[in-house]
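Inverse folding, one chain.
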């Protein structure tokens, strides 16, 4: 999922990633095994990311990729509002 090939993921990297997920409360180890399962918090995070991608990012990325022909479409207007909000936030943080 990180864009790495299986042979590029070392044991140390896997241990580090699993430890971070566990310390953030997203996964928990199943006792007497080397397996993990999602916690309630982890499942909530997955749900939020999945919904955000499916209903917000995918349609807006179609505008960026040129899938939308009109600059006045609903998606194009929404993308402009989001980019404007991001720019405003960055400017406020820099000040």
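Residues assigned per position:
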């Amino acid at each position: 999922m990180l864009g790495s090939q299986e042979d590029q993921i070392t044991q140390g990297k896997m241990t580090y990633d699993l430890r971070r997920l566990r310390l953030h409360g997203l996964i928990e180890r199943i006792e007497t095994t080397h397996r993990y399962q999602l916690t309630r918090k982890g499942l909530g995070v997955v749900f939020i990311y999945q919904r955000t991608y499916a209903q917000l990012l995918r349609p807006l990325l179609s505008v960026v990729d040129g899938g939308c022909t009109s600059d006045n479409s609903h998606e194009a207007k929404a993308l402009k509002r989001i980019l404007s909000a991001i720019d405003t936030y960055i400017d406020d943080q820099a000040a």
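The mean pLDDT is 84. The first strand starts at residue 27 and ends at 29.
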